[in-house]
Amino acid sequence: MSLPPVQPRSVLVTGCSSGIGAATAAHLREAGWQVFPTARKPADLDALRAQGFEPVELDLADAASVEQAVRGLLARTDGRLGALVNNAGFCQAGALEDVDRSALRTQFEANLFGAHQLTRLLLPAFRRQGCGRIVNVSSVFGRISVPMVGSYCASKFALEALSDALRIELRNTGLWVALVEPGAIVSRFRLNAAEALDRSVDRSLSGFGDVYAREIERRRRQVKKPDWFTRPPEEVARQVRHALESPRPRRRYRVGLSAHLVEWMVRFVPQACTDPLLARRVPGRRPPSEGHP
Predict the structure, then answer these.
(1) In this structure, is residue 282 part of a structural domain?
(2) Residue 84 and residue 14: Cα distance in Å, rounded?
(3) How much is the pLDDT for 178?
(4) Does 44 fall in a domain?
(5) Which residues are catalytic?
(6) What is the CATH number of the domain that holds 72?
(7) Helix (H, G, I), strand (E, B) or coil at 185
(8) How far apart are CA 209 and CA 219, in angstroms?
(9) What is the mean predicted confidence (pLDDT) over 119-142?
(10) Residue 251: pLDDT over 90
(11) Tens-place pLDDT, residues 8-29
């Protein structure tokens, strides 16, 4: 099935303060797209303006912010937009026994509910045009669930399910939904996960408290550079562009060796084999007498 070209060549890209979002915004602008990048913090919005963008203030965890952002954007573009890249999100790290309901809800608000609301609000404009592309940036952790980041995995599994259902619902409309599944990418992902862990988990009540403290400090000191395994965010940006421009876009784009290895594992290796391997990621826990029971 061949899809019509996106018209206009304009795109809203969420989560552009750094990493994949910033690289995608820059790459698409160089390719001739009119890019509307989003960010939450005033300093990040100012930085995007300094780069020549027309940024959109957006907090996906706030339903009113999503509605306001869409109204403002469509007013600026006469009700037209060519594409949407749902990239914004974060990782709530921590063992699931330490992630309370509020923290889990915050994870899903940012990674799933906000993206779903944003997509719904823009779909009428895409339908009127008879064309449009939606690219949802998922993760290798949307294909395999691993310990200590189970909340994040759950949100990405859910994003994959919604994306697949929406793609089928939009069949023969001229619209398309693609998933991009990065593996290890150079970004603030690990640092942001450590900061979220520090904010939302009371280490004094966790049997993993000492482990969390060491991990938080390590992530704050760590400076990661691209290598054969951890790829630069520009590689993700190139796949996003293909999903937006190709007349025959793929359903899924895997980025990096780790993403391809995980897909192979999910397809061909039984969980009876992968469970013991993944269990090695679970750190030692303090006895109940030193932490919570």
Answers:
(1) no
(2) 8
(3) 98
(4) yes
(5) 152
(6) 3.40.50.720
(7) strand
(8) 15
(9) 97
(10) yes
(11) 999 999 999 999 999 999 999 9
* Residues facing residue 137 across a β-bridge: 180
The backbone torsions φ and ψ at residue 242, rounded to the nearest 5 degrees and listed phi first, read -60, -45
- 223 CB-near residues (< 8 Å, 6+ apart): none
| pTM for the predicted model, two decimal places | 0.94
Amino acid of residue 285: R
Q: In terms of residue numbers, what domain contains 173?
A: 10-184+232-276
> pLDDT tens, 170-224?
999 999 999 999 999 999 899 999 999 999 999 999 999 999 999 999 999 888 7
In a domain, 116, yes or no: yes
b/e per residue, 65-74, with b = 16+ CB within 10 A? bbeebbeebb
Residue 98 lies in a domain: yes
Model confidence at 289: pLDDT above 60: no
Torsion of CA 135, 136, 137, 140, to 10 degrees: -120
Edge to edge, what strands does the sheet with 34-39 contain? Answer: 56-57, 34-39, 10-13, 83-86, 132-137, 175-182, 252-255
Please state, in angstroms and as integers, the Cα–Cα distance from residue 40 to each residue in 6, 14, 18, 52, following that order: 27, 10, 12, 18
